[in-house]
Amino acid sequence: MSDAKPGKTVNASRVTLSQLMQPEHANTHGNVHGGWIMKLIDEAGALACMRHAQQRVVTVAVDTITFRHPIRIGDLVIITAEVSFVGRTSMEVEVRVEAENPITGECSETNAAYLVYVALDHNGRPIPVPPLIPETDAERQRMESGRARQGNRLARER
Ligand SMILES: CC(C)(COP(=O)(O)OP(=O)(O)OC[C@H]1O[C@@H](n2cnc3c(N)ncnc32)[C@H](O)[C@@H]1OP(=O)(O)O)[C@@H](O)C(=O)NCCC(=O)NCCS
Hints:
The strands form two sheets. A five-stranded antiparallel β-sheet has the order 2-4-5-6-3. Strands 1-7 form a two-stranded parallel sheet. The chain has three helices and seven strands, in the order βαβαβββββα. By secondary structure, it is of the alpha+beta class. The relative contact order is 0.22. The chain has a single domain (8-157), classed as Thiol Ester Dehydrase, Chain A (Roll). The protein binds coenzyme A (COA). Residues 58-61, 87-90, 116, 118, 126, 153-154, 157 line the site of coenzyme A.
């Protein structure tokens, strides 16, 4: 009997986390500390992968994270993560970060990042994950770019 897992859609992995930025999230300039946002990015990415693989996962790689706009205390940070490409045991996630001023409704996309996670079995060894089923042209295109991005990551490791 085949142990191949049935494929799952990108949509099935999508996770949105929302958090109000409070004074304890501030840096010394009074804006939000980048480290808080990086932690939320990693949490959202891991959750999307757990949804896809239905296994525990660990972060293996984080691509460049660029902060395009400062996030203010009092902003609602909205983080959306979805699986963009899968290998055998690894999953690439695209994470987008938006900041919304809940008073004015002004909203800006402040970050986007790709991260890679590996699914682990009960002994902490990498375990195969379900194939990813892209449903739109954009998802198909991103999956192909994800294959190339993963190839580049592994080439840099050599
Ligand atoms: C993730 C980990 C289990 C991988 O172990 P490993 O012995 O390298 O296992 P493998 O060589 O089989 O690699 C597993 C997958 O990771 C991928 N991988 C390995 N290094 C990678 C890298 N630098 N970038 C992207 N993917 C990588 C491999 O391509 C493979 O994917 P595939 O099965 O889809 O082809 C191991 O490196 C680990 O435990 N790292 C620490 C994870 C951690 O603690 N993260 C939190 C940091 S605070």
